[in-house]
Amino acid sequence: MKIRLLPCLLAAAACLAAGASIAQEAILKPWPAAQPTPALRLESLDGEDWNLARLRGKVVVVNFWASWCGPCVEELPVLNALARQDSGKVAVVGVNYKEALDSIERFSKDHPFAYPVLRDRSGDMFKQWTAGVMPTTILVDRQGRARWRSAGEIGAGDTRLKAAIDALLAEPRHRE
Q: CA 62: distance to chain centroid?
């Protein structure tokens, strides 16, 4: 238990420290051009196998979070509102970082999600998709390619995420 607790405490401290400085400056940056979009295959909270490819045709907002990360909790209303807006064109997916199912379920009773939550039990998806900051939000275009990444909390008044989503929706369906 002590061996597993220390990395979690260090990660929580890093999240709080990063969140304090990044939350005010969360910047949407282009996905690195040389970095291919990783596969995203995980299990949902109800045990269903889930694959990002099934959302082709929609712009997808992938959010990496943990219940112990204050900025992650603060941005939940923004993500919930986004998930409720235009579900025919935009999908929001939460990816929980290495928490036990019962912890996630307890958390979601007080903080309901309007979108599916997947479990990154090993932390491998977090390593492949993020720059190591929590929360991290990635925008995936309708062809399934990661296009934008934001490290840090997306605040309620931040219009950059919505503008980037709108720009992706305005692109022709088959971009070369």
A: 4
CA distances from 138 to 34, 59, 95, 100, 101 (A): 16, 10, 11, 23, 23
State the CB neighbour count (10 A cutoff) for residue 4: 9
Instruction: Confirm whether 176 is domain-assigned.
Output: no
| Amino acid in the structure at residue 100 | A
Residue 175 lies in a domain: no
Q: Which positions ≥6 away from 33 have C-beta within 8 Å?
A: none
CA-CA distances (angstroms) from residue 172 to 49, 59, 66, 143, 153? 30, 12, 35, 10, 30
- Residue range(s) defining the domain that contains residue 50: 2-170
Mean of pLDDT over the chain = 86
Query: Could you report the per-residue pLDDT of 47-82, keeping only the tens digit for each?
Result: 999 999 999 999 999 999 999 999 999 999 999 999
